[in-house]
Every structure is written in C-alpha cells, then in structure tokens.
Request: fold
Amino acid sequence: MNAKSFFILFVFLISFLTAKPVHAEIEEVILRVDGLACPFCAYGLEKKMMPIKGVKSYDVDMGEGKVYLELEGDAKLDLEAFRKGVKEAGFTLRDVYLRAKGTIEKSDTGFALILGAGGDQLLLFEKEALGKEYHQGDDPKSLTLGQELARKLEEYAGNKKEVRIEGSVHEHQGLPAGLAVEKLETVG
Amino acid sequence: MRKRFIVAGVILALIAGCSAPFEESYHSVKAIGREGSGLREFREPIGIAIDGDGFLYISDAGNHRIQKFSRTGEFIKTWGKKGSGEGELNRPMHLSFGPDGNLYVAEYLNDRIQVFDRDGNFIRFIGLKPDGESYFDAPDGVAIDSKGFIYVADFYHHQIQKFDPAGKFLTSLGKPGRLWPGNLHYPTDVEIDREGNLLIADAYNNRIQKATAAGKPLAKWGGFLGLGIPGSGKGSFKVATGITQDDNGNIYVADFDNHRVEKLSAEGHVIAILKGDGDASLKYPTDVAVDQDDHVWIVDFGHNRVVLYAKNK
Reply:
C-alpha cells in the first residue's frame, strides 16, 4: 500500500469511527398550562421548570398560557418531570406540544422518531388518533396512520431523509409516548 | 304600613350607600416608559420605591435590572443583569427602602433579598443560610420597620419571614390557608404602616391583611367581611398584588385583575379608585407608591410603564 492509499484509508476509518448517529433533536417544547395569569405565576413556573435536567431556556406567553422550553442537544423528553414541575408551581398541564428534527424509523409497532442517544422514541400517529381507544395488546398501527401520512413516513424512513415534525405528545397506556402529527416537512 | 316604610327606607339607604360617589378622584398626569430593553424601557416591571429625595426606583423584572428616575421622569441610571452574583438579579420584584437609606430588593428566582445603596452598589444579601440554601421559596415583597427588622413576603411558603437588622432569621408569620385571619395564600407584598404594623397583600386570597409585627392578625379587607371573595365592586379585589401607605395613613392596593388601584382609609373604607381612561387606563397594575407631593405612582405591568396620578381638586 503506498502513502496516498494509506492516507485515504486512514481518513475513511477516522470518519467512520467518529461519525455520530443521527438522532432527533428536540427544537422546542411548548407546554400549554391552565392558570398562567400573572407574573408571579409565570415566574413561579420558571422556577420549577429551569432545574429540570436538560432544560436550557424558558419563555412564557401569559396571555396564551404557553410555556416555551428549549432543551439541551441530547436532552431526554421527560414528560413526568414536566408534569411534576407544573403541578408544584400550582398549575395544570393541559398538553405538551413539540417540534423536533430527525429521521424516521420503521418498526413492528409503526413509525417512530428516535430521540437522543438513549434511543427513546416517539410513536407517530395521526392527530385524529388522540380520541381513539387503545387496549394493551392491540396493534399500535390501529391508532391510525392515514394513507397520506403513512405514505410520507414510509418514504422518509426508506430514504433516511431528515424531517421536521410537530405535534402534541400523547400517551396511550401500554405504549411509549406518541406524537399526534400536525406538521411534517423535510429539512434542507 | 309603618314596617313597609322602614324596610323601604333601609333599602333606599343601602342603594344610596352603594352608589355614593367616592370621596376623592384622580386623573393621570403622565407615563414613563414603554416595552423594551433599552433605557427608559421596561419588560414586565413589577415594583416601585421612592427614596427620601423623591427619586423613583423601578424593578424591571423581565430585564433583570433596576431603573432609577427623577420625579419629573428623567432617567438617572440603571443597574443589574441576569445572574446570581453580587449586583446581579434574577426576577427582581417588589422593593423598599430601609431606615438605613438602602434599597432592599426581593429576587424571586434567586430566593434572596439583595440590598443596594442608592447608586446601585451592592451592600449585602439577606435570606441565605450558611449551607447556601434559602429561607425563601420565591420572595416577592420586602419591608423594613423603623428598628431595621426585615419582613419578606414568601410566595410559595405562604408566609412572611422575619429577620433581625443583621439579617438573622427570627420567625415565620402567618400560615398557609384561605379563610381565617392570619391565613395567607401566595402573598406578594408587605408594607409597614405608621404604627409599625404589617400590611400584607394576600394576593390569591383576594384581600389585604393587617397584623402586628409579631404576626397577630388585626384586620382583613377584601369583599364581604374580608373573606376575600374575588370581585370588582367597591372594596373587593381580584388578586391584590401590591400595597403601600401614605403619610396620612391611607392604604393603596394594586388590584391586578381589576386593572385598578383602590385607595382605602386606615379603617378600610374605599376612598377612591384609580384606573384611568383610554390610553391612560391601567392594565394589570402590580405596585403603587406615593411621593412627597401626595402623587400616586403606579406600575402598569400590562403596559410596561409607570403612570403618575394626581388628585382632582
């Protein structure tokens, strides 16, 4: 092997070994909270939310009752910590809405957005599935992926295209947390 | 027949009492500030204090700083930035001057009181334990009596915390609760009256309370029998967030959700309502102060400004 070939192989190996897996990045989490009526309330919620692991910044729209959280790059989406923080501040969490960027994976349970290095996933389903009943043991795909959404997710999972996805987080008993998709677009 | 006349007379007297004009009325004179982060701009202003020379100090909570103005509205200086070091602030709330001439600022997210001189130079912290923990969970109001004892409205503890002049913790006053005298529910401000008693903005009980310096309840006002039923009528409050007293003993309450300030006599009778009209109308006022000319300065949180009111002659 001559020096040039060795150099090319060396660069290839270094790139391979140092390449980071592509994980979804949560760009923003929006908590919809009942009762955010005054600065004492809003700052109280800030006080309880900022210490949560992974929370990088906090902003609030008191009039709309919305809290905007920016998470650290590899932060885990800790719904339980969000619920607890909101409750300790004296409020009720109505729902969690998020915007994330990443790739789609297909598995036996359906399509999912993989989050962070830990491999946590968000199952993806139609917004209309929020009202559907699900019983443990049922096929998760019964939570409905409409034809159009299923086709897109199939395409994006197949070609590993990076997407930006938005929706409300929802938990059906017996399943990992899911995302009721409201917006889906490719990135770049 | 006689009974009917008596009943009718009582009813008419009640109606006349309810609709009687207030003893005093006010008009707005001018406003200082607008939304922003520049000089003379505010982002979520909360508290106001006036020093012995008439200068105004306003806590600009969203910008994590204090701004100082003359009574004519001239900007003097600003200090503070977001942080936890000396001179840094994190959500400064209500503030007061002590008999030492220094400015005491309640810092909601740093869980402490920070003391400055009138030029913004750091003096000391109050409320921190030797291990670094705090006595507070979201302090939002502070008052200092003539002997230098410090009283702090502690939002999530639903109490007033009392310290000696050196800053040593003494005791907690009041108890969490909704109904009884001495019960507090998310208090947001505290003031010392002319007799050395405490006046407390018992915000989410929709009432104000008066207590001795030892915490013995003396009176409560807000709705029927001071039970704190929220309302927008005379003498009722919907989230009483700020409180102060003038040299004549009158009490002013920032009535947040009613977008007004109520002025009460020392006995709790409503004397005037300050709310403004049109462009001068208040939106979620959070604090109030009275200057040496008896003019009333109101922190108009919802409009990110401070408004000056004068009494009509």
Q: What stands out?
A: The domain at 25-186 of chain A is CATH 3.30.70.100 (Alpha-Beta Plaits). The mean pLDDT of chain A is 78. Chain A has one domain: 25-186.
